[in-house]
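Thread: quick sanity check before group meeting

JM: Hey all, I'm pulling together slides for Thursday and realized we never actually wrote out the predicted structure for the chain we discussed last week. Dropping the sequence here so it's in one place. If anyone has concerns about the input, flag it before I start.
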Amino acid sequence: MKITSIIAIFTLFWVLSAFLVMPFGVRTHEEAGIEKVPGQADSAPANFSARRICIRATVLAVVLFGAFYLNYVNEWILPQDLDFFTPRNLDGGRG
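JM (edit): ok, ran it. Output follows.
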């Protein structure tokens, strides 16, 4: 696998991970007991920390990419294993 492919796939895992970890640990002003600014949305976070989200996303992305790369190298799950619409022969093969 080329380094450009590794960077691109890791970036995709990182963005996915960032969206997955973003809602965890965030509290609204009401939950935190802090007074809201006039005009502020009720759902606005009171303790948003971009650094914490980046760290969590990086850790999760490393784990997910590690699993992806191990599967790529060892070929545990291949694309033809995910084809559920082509009937199998009795000997286990496709076609």
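AS: nice. The chain has one domain: 3-82. The chain has a mean pLDDT of 90.
JM: adding both to the slides.
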